[in-house]
């Protein structure tokens, strides 16, 4: 996904998206797959079946399933309030 598309995705609402916790500093949360039902500055609340788990953004890496794409996002990039993500600058590495 090109950086401008990633920037557009980062600005989207994450509540309602399916997500996989790809890596996490809390090993028991790795591999969690579910639906984001709430978001704060530092966490996602992910519903997996009959459980609701709180996953910290800053120590996690996520795979989002969005419009037919699988998007990898480091949680450090989105460790902000939803309305603060609009100001995120994405720089291409060359």
TrEMBL record:
<dbReference type="GO" id="GO:0030677">
    <property type="term" value="C:ribonuclease P complex"/>
</dbReference>
<dbReference type="GO" id="GO:0005737">
    <property type="term" value="C:cytoplasm"/>
</dbReference>
<keyword id="KW-0378">Hydrolase</keyword>
<dbReference type="GO" id="GO:0004526">
    <property type="term" value="F:ribonuclease P activity"/>
</dbReference>
<keyword id="KW-0963">Cytoplasm</keyword>
<comment type="function">
    <text>Part of ribonuclease P, a protein complex that generates mature tRNA molecules by cleaving their 5'-ends.</text>
</comment>
<dbReference type="GO" id="GO:0003723">
    <property type="term" value="F:RNA binding"/>
</dbReference>
<keyword id="KW-0819">tRNA processing</keyword>
<dbReference type="InterPro" id="IPR002730">
    <property type="entry name" value="Rpp29/RNP1"/>
</dbReference>
<keyword id="KW-0540">Nuclease</keyword>
<comment type="subunit">
    <text>Consists of a catalytic RNA component and at least 4-5 protein subunits.</text>
</comment>
<dbReference type="InterPro" id="IPR036980">
    <property type="entry name" value="RNase_P/MRP_Rpp29_sf"/>
</dbReference>
<dbReference type="InterPro" id="IPR023538">
    <property type="entry name" value="RNP1"/>
</dbReference>
<dbReference type="Pfam" id="PF01868">
    <property type="entry name" value="RNase_P-MRP_p29"/>
</dbReference>
<dbReference type="GO" id="GO:0001682">
    <property type="term" value="P:tRNA 5'-leader removal"/>
</dbReference>
<dbReference type="InterPro" id="IPR023534">
    <property type="entry name" value="Rof/RNase_P-like"/>
</dbReference>
<keyword id="KW-0255">Endonuclease</keyword>
<protein>
    <recommendedName>
        <fullName>Ribonuclease P protein component 1</fullName>
        <ecNumber>3.1.26.5</ecNumber>
    </recommendedName>
</protein>
<comment type="similarity">
    <text>Belongs to the eukaryotic/archaeal RNase P protein component 1 family.</text>
</comment>
């Amino acid at each position: 996904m090109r950086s401008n598309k990633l920037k557009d995705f980062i600005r989207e609402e994450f509540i309602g998206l399916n997500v996989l916790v790809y890596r996490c500093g809390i090993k028991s949360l790795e591999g969690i797959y579910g639906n984001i039902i709430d978001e704060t500055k530092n966490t996602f609340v992910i519903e997996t079946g009959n459980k609701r788990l709180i996953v910290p953004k800053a120590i996690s890496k996520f795979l989002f399933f969005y419009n037919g794409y699988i998007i990898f996002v480091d949680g450090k990039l989105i460790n902000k309030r939803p309305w603060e993500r609009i100001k995120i600058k994405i720089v291409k590495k060359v």
